[in-house]
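Submission sheet (multi-component)
Chains listed below:
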Amino acid sequence: MIAATLALPSIHYLVIVPVLIFFGASLFLLIASAMWRQTVPTSFTTAVTVLAAVATLGVTYFQWRDLDHHGVTTTVAHAVVLDGFSVVATAVIALSVALAALVAHDWALREKVRGPEYQILALASSAGAILMTQANDLIVIFLGLEILSLGLYVLVAIDRRKTESAEASLKYFILGGFASAIFIYGAALLYGATGSTNLSTISYFLGANVLLKPGLLVAGGALLLVGFAFKVAAVPFHMWSPDVYEGAPTPVTGFMASIVKVGAFAALVRVMISGLGTQLATWRPILWVLIVLTTVIGATLAVPQRNAKRLLAYSSINHAGFILIGVWAGTARGSAATLFYLATYAPTVVATFAILTVMGGLGDERHSLESYRGLARRQPWLGASLAVLLLSQLGAPLTAGFYAKYAVLASAIDANGVELALIALLSAAIAASFYLRWAVVLYAESDDELDATRVVVPRATAVVIGAGVVLTLVFGVWPGPLVTLAQHATLYFIP
Amino acid sequence: MHSSLWLSALIVLPLMGALIAMLVRKLPGASYAVAVAVGTIEVVVSLVVAALYSSHVSNAGTFDFVSRHVVAAPFGLAYDVALDGLSLLMVVLTALVLWLSLLGGRDRRREPAFVAWLLILTGLTMGAFVAHDVLEFFIFFELTLVPCYFIISGWGGRERSRAALKFFLYTFTASAFLLVGILYMGFAYQHQHPTSGLTFAYGALSTTAMSHPVAVWLFIGFALAFGAKAPIWPLHTWSPLTYAEAPTAGSIELSALLAKLGSYGLLRFAVGLLPAAQVSVRPYVLTLAVIGILYGSILACVAKDLKRFVAYSSLAQMSFITLGIMSGSTIGVTGAVLLMFNHGIITIGFFLIIGFLERRRSSIQIADFRGLQGPAPVMAALFTIAMLASIGLPGLSGFVSEYLILIGTFTTHAWWSAFAALGVLASAVYLLWAYQRVFHGRAEGANAQITDASSAERWVLVPVVVLIVVLGVFPKPVLDRITPSVHNFVTQVATAGAFK
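Outcome: structure written.
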């Protein structure tokens, strides 16, 4: 009797295969670790993770072909969507997961963090991030957000011997919990205002009706925005990020700076553009203030930092502001720019944190900028790689970072946001000062030769650094294909 | 029409050279040899291009060597090169600066990296001068900052980090206005021509219709970016510190070449793309230029070291160039284009001699020198030639260009020209006084021991002296090449400006 009333929605499996692969791999490792007599070897868990990521990359190809033939699909009662935006974002996440897993592999061997937990949690978190890129329902976004975050809270404290990590984890957990609560409250208010949690339905409802008393809607949208602002660390909701970035093990920081950002921004674009696109005039001024604060304060606070991880935390706040510009534009060009930014930023930042991981040395503690003095003289390739990655984040031409900034600024100017573009660019000039100072330290003469020991770059990490640098330079010289892809992807954006 | 491969070769050659120089870095001296070889080829190619250049190409105005390839259509990004009389001399100057700063400003500390940066800088600057697409120009313009930054911070004097950062931030910040302005123009054009994609082609953007206030704002933005680079008073404050701290080759690149990117950009893009706005802001910019001429001259009088001295005298000279660019007359603009080249050559001479002195005394303080004329007569003679050219002695190169600028400005803005003429007088004062302090009097102590210019040092300065004399006595072949473009340019600007 019960079975008759519980009508299961039809499922188009191709859509959710990436999520299933990641969950499956996570579960597989969990079971394997229970069956294995000794601790599961690190190389095995890494291999499974990389394999899952590569398989997902393959699946995204078929998803893209499906899109070309059949167009946008929704499934599971329209709660999950397959569109160009989600496919490209999924591919970016999969690539970043593979790269981050390789970095974590070498780190785990060095720090003797045994056991499969790291990759199990990373896989589960990534599944959450992918779900966020595909979600077309506030509840599913929330689900993805929680899956993503719960794994991360533990990952931050995965090195149990470090008290800083435990502190960072607790801080992240408490503030993240608040953010989730605020987010779900916003979703509830939005449901109250529109009668649905489905983004397409919300959009349709808002397009067909005029709310005489939009208080509930505005409050709900604002709370959602606050929830997202917490996740992407936009000022004034950024307080947690420097402490957590510093306290977390460096590979985890890299994971947070890339995969979490992609997932959260993809969901943000979907909520703002596809769900609340009709309310552009209401949320744009709020976002404008948020962007100005995020870019300027992020860049300014990074200047006095002497710790590489804290510095990159503030730099990533500045970048979050730039990515938000694409959302602010509210156009197809803006969404494409956001996607392009994420696609170029994620590999860059993973590779940067890979270098930080290597430089951290045993105990993951050498993170003062001083320890980078003369790096490029001792180890030209490593130093030059970091210099390229920093220049890309600075936004120097001939690196992918330039076109990323260019894309979002162009979308802003196209949407009459000249002032916003100018303010953001001036913040980039502030940011340039600390990237350059760091780059010069790399090439400076080191005073103390004794301290200037060569660091060993393990092979897997070297691959990641190389991949990051190559991607940065290739897309910097020849951004054409990726731009076209990003633009193409947003044409398939769900209405 | 000639093949654009010539221009592409000018960009690619130095970049390839940089790569080769880094590949052979283990062999002692090999990188330097590679760099000199590439520099020589670059000079030859640039001279061939200058000889081939024809100002009467059908359907391309006075542009020659034109070609355009779209690189990333959604971004409006294209590789587009062309050459006309405005950029012709700059191309030759770029090649010459590389060659002479390699030969005269050799720096043996970590030489492979040093020459590689110099070569990269040359390739990028060349790209900026031949770019026929506004966005492409911006990219090259912005990219030149990176090698400059590393040259100054890696090989400069004691305060090199501060100097390099100040220089970078100044230009980077100012160019933010340029990028936003360029993007604004691109989208304005696209909205007016919905059928065309996003484009930043120079020819397209120059037809963009804009309301007058918008054009004025854009002009101010452009002028900020180019004024910080040139420099125009009051945006010059980075230059004395940076010139003083940079190594000899770096100072040469900065003042002889990169400053010209600023004035060239002002002429080509600010004036060329926004002719109507130019008419309304002209008095203000002219006033700034006159202030710059007088201010630079006064500070050059009291400068304590030789590099700051040249920095301030450069400020005055660059202000002359700005005056000519904004004069709105063919003669004035011709003079400005010529002075860009002449000032470059003269500055190379000054900085090379200062570099030779620094090598001997490890000091550039004017107070440390006295009576060098006795022990080093050849050096004194060479300095005198550069000095007299800079003052504007008839028969030397500086005279022709300054004279043209003053006449051109006088026909349109007589009062500004009158005050600017005081600058010519002032330049005689500060240059002769500096000469007096350094070369006259009785040489004692270390100054008496100083050796005269070696034969290698003399040979490096030969091209400088030859160019100074030839362009002073017989500038006609050069003028013939640049005048059609300038005339065309000024006519277009004047026609568009009349529709204000």
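Remark: The first strand of chain B starts at residue 64 and ends at 72.
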